[in-house]
Amino acid sequence: MAVEQVLDDPSMLASIRDKQPHVSRNLGDLGEVFSTEIAQRLLFERGLRTPYIRLWRHGDDIGVRDAAKTKGGADERRVLAGLADPQYVVSQMRAGATLVFQAMSTYCPEVATFCADLAEDVGCPVAANAFLTPPHAQGAPVHYDMASVFIRQLAGSKTWRLHEPPKQWPIRRSKPGDKPETPLSQEVTLHPGDCLYLPRGYYHEGITGDQGSVHITFSDGVEDHWLEILHDVLDLVAERTESLRGRLPGRSEALSGQSKAIWQTVREDVSRALDDLGDEMISALILRRLQAREQELARTEATSLADILVVESKPGDE
Question: Are 207 and 25 in contact (CB under 8 A)?
């Protein structure tokens, strides 16, 4: 199972999920999924567009495309096409920048396959980003993510400082420059074969020492929350409740207090509509979202372009 490559005891996922950090040690090599060699090919041979590549240095996003200087010819065509300049990326890494490969399932087959397998194990879609950080450097600033993540160390080492979430399961992203006012939860150093499970909402920052670091992050936070179900419920209620579809009171009505009576009518109508929905309808809405997620998890069936075009494929095309 793919989950065994990110968690030392897969059976404990349910008990820690979205709740507490967990460090797994000595999980083995994951070089067939991502490595410095694969990163080398992606950067120099794949011709990735700049949205898929980011550069961070000491907490600042320093950009890729806009900062690259063109000298005419191929370099100019590369920038106009939105392609990252490998030489510029390398020069910034030498100056302490962290190279980030984003949304890797869209262009890296090895990562895409592993994400698909891991998604089947954890029960929700999985995305992946990879981070290559030089020695004595910090990439992204301290922040928290909206998704729980597995931080899988592949080469070198990185030390992580974790702070408690600002609240349990925040629904708004942390802002640039935000500093955690919550207690330090733990400090942990990851080495090759280690993995840190980090629940959504935990502040974190990673710093390298004498060694650089290569790690890949698998996020498992694309699940639905009760907030989404409530949106579905309100959509149904709005179809059945005329007052909820009414225009908001104007400024004069709000200032004079007339809006209170209007709101009371809306509230009573919505309350009756919610009672009429019943628990069975809520269960049906939940199942609908679960089925949509399962369809998203299903692997795309291989398609032959030759069949679509109604032409014969040459030997070796399939």
Answer: no
> Quick one: CA dihedral 44, 45, 47, 48, positive or negative?
negative
Residue with tokens 């628990």: 279
CA distance 22 to 37: 29
Which residues touch 83 (CB under 8 Å, ≥6 apart)? Answer: 47, 48, 49, 50
Joined tokens for residue 237: 């209620």
b/e string for 109-140 if b means 16 or more Cβ within 10 A?
A: eebeebbbbbbbbbebbbbbbbbbbbeebbbb
Which two structure tokens, joined as six digits, stand for 200?
């959504």
**CA dist., res. 11 & res. 9, Å (int):** 5
Count the Cβ atoms, other than its own, within 10 Å of residue 101.
Answer: 24
CB 195 within 8 A of CB 142: no
252: pLDDT strictly greater than 80: yes
List CB contacts of 318: < 8 A, sequence separation 6 or more.
304
Give which of 239, 306, 303 is closest to 270, Cα–Cα: 239
Residues 6+ apart with CB under 8 A from 203: 142, 143, 144, 162, 163, 164, 165, 166, 174, 180, 182
Whether this prediction's pTM lies above 0.85 is answered by no
Higher pLDDT, 151 or 170: 151
* Residue with the two structure tokens 């999920």: 17
Banded pLDDT at 260 (limits 50, 70, 90): very high
